[in-house]
From TrEMBL:
Monomer. L-glutamine binds at D65, Y209. The lineage of its organism: Bacteria, Pseudomonadati, Bacteroidota, Flavobacteriia, Flavobacteriales. This is Glutamine--tRNA ligase. A motif ('HIGH' region) lies at residues 32-42. It catalyses: tRNA(Gln) + L-glutamine + ATP = L-glutaminyl-tRNA(Gln) + AMP + diphosphate.
Amino acid sequence: ETSKSLNFIEQIIEEDLENGYSKSDLRFRFPPEPNGYLHIGHASSICLNFGLGLRYQSPVNLRFDDTNPAKEEQEFVDAIKKDVSWLGFEWDTERYASDYFQQLYDWAVQLIKDGKAYVDSQTSEEMAVQKGTPTQPGTNSPFRNRSVAENLSLFEEMKSGAHKEGSHVLRAKIDMAHTNMLMRDPIMYRILHRAHHRTNTDWCIYPMYDWTHGESDYIEQVSHSLCTLEFLPHRELYDWFLDQVYDPKMLRPKQREFARRNLSHTVVSKRKLAQLVAEKVVTGWDDPRMPTISGMRRRGYTPESIRNFADTIGIAKRDNLIDVSLLEFHVREDLNRTTPRVMGVLDPLKVVITNYPEGPEEWLEAENSPEDESLGFRQVPFSRELYIEKDDFKEEANKKFFRLKLGGEVRLKNAYIIKAESCTKDTDGNIVEVQCTYDPKSKSGSANPESLRKVKGTLHWVSIPHAVPSEIRLYDRLFTHESPDTQKDKDFMDFINPNSLEVITGFVEPSLKEAKIGDRFQFQRMGYFCVDKDSTEEELVFNRTVGLRDSWAK
Ligand code: ATP
Ligand code: MG
Ligand code: MG
């Protein structure tokens, strides 16, 4: 393989392999904070880390970065595990930063003894003022030169619960004049009298992200710790913290950064998605309009389509916005290959075939997929009264209208050619019924040469006595702006699309009565649909996953 086909992270790994790493040194991790559900941005990171695991046959840990009990919950841990598995990846071991609280504490005590950490007892406001600015050095805390003994006893008291939240913090003693602001005596621990979803009330001091992340990588012997670009300035601190504990007999983890992926017409930030849930803009984290993995699963997206999307966009060194229509392209491509075709009418218009015999229905054979013969055939009932789409009939229309018009012919999919003879209107002038005749010799698939007769249009339909009324949920973009959270002087909530959900009653063919929650179909000419979890024995509920064509990019 040439280096051209390698992304820049793979190139870094290849160089490391040339310069002394062995393949068995390689180890990766995906490190979500369990403070929300995973979204499409996380899918990129999952595909990157687990993709490297597959490429180099290396273990990949699922590590929960659970250092903030104020925001983290078991519900989110469970959802994250489900989503990573559903995407099709297997982690080597399940780890928690909280597993390392004792080790981190012991190391912190060592730092205090080495004169590299101290307890600061100022308010956060006072410390913020002393931090300085990027162009001006900060000033030392009056507590910076506390004795080791005093620091040890205060830190011990913090741990044992003797102090209130906000009264003390443990800080690394680095350099208050450092050009990198993050190196100006960063906080390592704060007091939080909060129960943790795993350690319960064992701890009331919690380690900060920077102190935790690199040391966790070191404990797990992760070789390449891949994170998003906003952590680039943190790398120096990551390395400083590692320097304090590093044993040269061990592997030293490297932090490397890649660009965050943003998707158009949505937001990918757990905090903002949580706000949509809390303010009931959506029905939950798994609302089919959400860019969460669980929302996309409920919408009908397949794991393959999300993985193909992530592979296509690859990774980058600069943050960028990916158009959601690229994701939808991959969804359509996969659903086209894998879903059976069925017929459902979303906006019904009654058709009566006046020369078709009254009485028992006729069952016609219909192919389930032109893309996949193995999906076989099913039987579809035909009768004298049918629904077609309202849009598919006009009294008069020009030559480009390949659907039904008075005096014109169309083929009904899997059935007969019909001709519109007349129509009936209500008192407001709306067409409520079309009277047609059919050509009995034109039956699809019959031996009769008339069955091959070509007409311009083919319509989908359902037999009225057999039609199954169903709730159909049609979705549109959740936001009207392609980048709702980057607009000056505007809040992303200002761009909510008020019409992102339309609920209608449609009529589907009776074979769908057997459909189970999660089953996916192509409703011919109407798009891809799946059975929603709200479906009951009494009423089927379908989500439109995506239309057949891109109706947005005009
Ligand atoms: P959020 O702002 O949504 O909470 P986060 O980065 O705080 O995102 P984490 O749970 O810490 O969320 O993320 C786990 C991993 O996924 C991290 O390595 C993070 O860098 C990566 N990640 C998160 N969002 C994106 C994104 N939009 N694109 C690529 N990777 C992402
Ligand atoms: Mg994070
Ligand atoms: Mg976050």
